[in-house]
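User: Can you predict the 3D structure for this chain?
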Amino acid sequence: MRYVLNERFALRGWDRLPWAVVRRPDNAVQFVDKSTFRVLSLCDGTIDLALPLFDERTRTIARELERQGIVRALAEGERAGLTDDQRYVCHPNRCIRTAHWSITGRCNYRCKHCYMDAPDALLGELDHDTVMDIARQIVDAGILRVNLTGGEPLVRRDFLDIVDYLVDRHVVIHRIYSNGRLVTHNPECAACAYRYACGGGCRGSALATTPDDVMAPDRALCLLYRGGYLDRVRAAAQGGAKVASAGATA
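Assistant: Here is the predicted structure, written as structure tokens:
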């Protein structure tokens, strides 16, 4: 009676919350008690829970985890194990589910109401190496989701480098806050929006523009919101077309 963690799940922990299972790709977290986590640790595809070494309570917990779809029982002779991502990692910091990251103070608009004073980047700009180091720290801290904002995040030449680094390490890009204007000038952004919001690493993401765009989605084809307007973005991305946007009002 061998069990293995289902491929969508990874074992994680944080300071004061050491026992959790994370569901990919949306990074939903389920915290469990010590006994349950002990059984999860035994579900690596190699340990036979039918051995008299283990009590009936251990087997009962394993069956319940199987019922929940977190683990699966291996067939006789089947070989399976854990990936590197699935193996237990305990981060020394507190659990942070979502980080809101302003990656730039620059913007392509000069909106009078902007509290960032964004066009002039008065506080300066972080260079590429520093930004990528922050992305590394986000991963090392076990942060599960990140919202990217600015200024206007798309003005950074390394925007896709930042997104790729995070997504490739299972960090969900939950929101990208943008005025949308640069999407019309860079057709590659359409493919980017499709990749990260339509299942490429950011389930349920949004490329959020202005409040007016939210009220009038037909004016903002670049707006992605759960279950809405994805077909138009998909067509634009696959056809290499530019994505139109109403933009902001200066």
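The mean pLDDT is 78. Residues 96-239 form one domain.
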